[in-house]
Design a protein that fits this description.
six-stranded mixed β-sheet, alpha/beta, 195 residues, Rossmann fold, 33% helix
Length: 195
């Protein structure tokens, strides 16, 4: 499957809610795998309360292995009494540079397309989209800024690395419809560029 090929439906209509993690305690260039800030924990709780009103019974909870995503998932998992499946494919984009060089690298690729990326990034992109196809029940996926951009870009045919700016703890909704996974609604967006 090419990066922009249609995603095949699992044979039933279902919604998948894609949640960007809450505000991290430290920025991307300071800590490799930070947890949530106090504000991030509050955002996670508010998003859990919002989702609890709309999700279907039997929803599957999925998280990136990164601490900030797992911590964002916890309030909803506790409210529902459900476990969270950790899936590697939903982790943030891999970076081929040192911690302190990440802001410059991120700024650079943010102006590029997925087709222009090196093999490591394209492999991550492909694995992410393939994993998304495996979700066969209503689900909430706790993940990251670039993951959301990769998915939304694939669903809308937009090859730009950054095609929208999902805010912390925002919820983007996609749904299987007539054999295709389609974008239903973008989550709330940032007013400034992500760090």
């Amino acid at each position: 499957m090419g990066d922009r090929d249609p995603l095949q439906a699992p044979g039933q209509a279902l919604k998948i809610y894609l949640v960007r993690h809450g505000q991290a305690e430290h920025s991307w260039q300071v800590a490799d795998n930070p947890g949530l800030s106090e504000r991030g924990h509050q955002q996670a709780l508010a998003t859990a309360q919002q989702l609890a009103l709309i999700i279907e019974p039997g929803v599957q909870l999925i998280s990136s292995p990164m601490v900030r995503a797992r911590e964002t998932a916890q309030p909803l998992a506790q409210a529902l009494g459900r476990p969270v499946s950790i899936i590697e494919a939903f982790r943030e984009i891999p970076t081929p540079v040192a911690l302190d060089e990440r802001p410059g690298w991120l700024k650079s690729i943010s102006r590029q397309t997925w087709s222009e990326q090196e093999e490591m990034v394209r492999a991550w992109h492909q694995a992410l989209l393939q994993e998304l196809q495996q979700i066969r029940q209503p689900a909430v996926v706790f993940t990251h800024f670039m993951v959301l951009n990769a998915i939304v870009g694939a669903l809308t045919g937009d090859d730009r690395v950054v095609c929208f700016l999902p805010d912390n703890a925002s919820v983007t909704t996609v749904q299987w419809t007539e054999q295709t996974l389609q974008l239903v609604e973008l989550g709330q967006q940032l007013k400034t560029v992500v760090h």
